[in-house]
Amino acid sequence: MGRIVTVAVCTLNQWAMDFEGNFKKILESIKDAKAQGATFRSGPELEITGYNCEDHFFESDTILHSWEVLAALLKSSICEDILVDVGMPVMHRNVTYNCRVAFLNRRIVLIRPKMQLCDTHMYRESRWFSAWTKEKTVEDYLLPDIITQITNQRFVQIGDAVITTRDTCIGFEICEELWHPSSNNIPMSLDGVEIITNASGSIFTVRKSYIIADLINAATQKCGGCYMYNNYRGCDGSRMYFSGTSSITLNGNILKRGKQFSLKDVEVNVATFDLEDIRTYRNSMRSRTHTGAKSKPYPRVIIDFSLSYDNDNYKLTTEPIDNNLFDNETISLTSKKTNIIYHTPEEEISMAPAAWMWDYLRRSCQGGFFLPLSGGIDSSSTACLIYSMCQMIVDAINDGDKQVLADVQKIVGDFNYIPNDPKQLCNTLLITCYMATENSSQDTKKRAAELAADIGSFHHSIVIDIAVTAVLKIFQQVTNLVPRFRAHGGSPRENLALQNVQARLRMVIAYLFAQLMLWVRGRPGGLLVLGSSNVDEALRGYFTKYDCSSADINPIGGISKNDLIKFLHYFSNKNNFNSLKKILDAPPTAELEPLQAGKVAQLDEVDMGMTYNELSIYGKLRKNKCAGPFTMFCKLLPHWNHCTPKEVADKVKHFYRCYAINRHKMTILTPSCHIENYTPDDNRTDHRQFLYNHTWKWQFDAIDEQVKKINEGDTNNMKNKKTGPGIPPKPKPSNFSNTKIPGVVV
Question: Any idea where the CN hydrolase domain is (predicted)?
Answer without folding.
Answer: 5-275
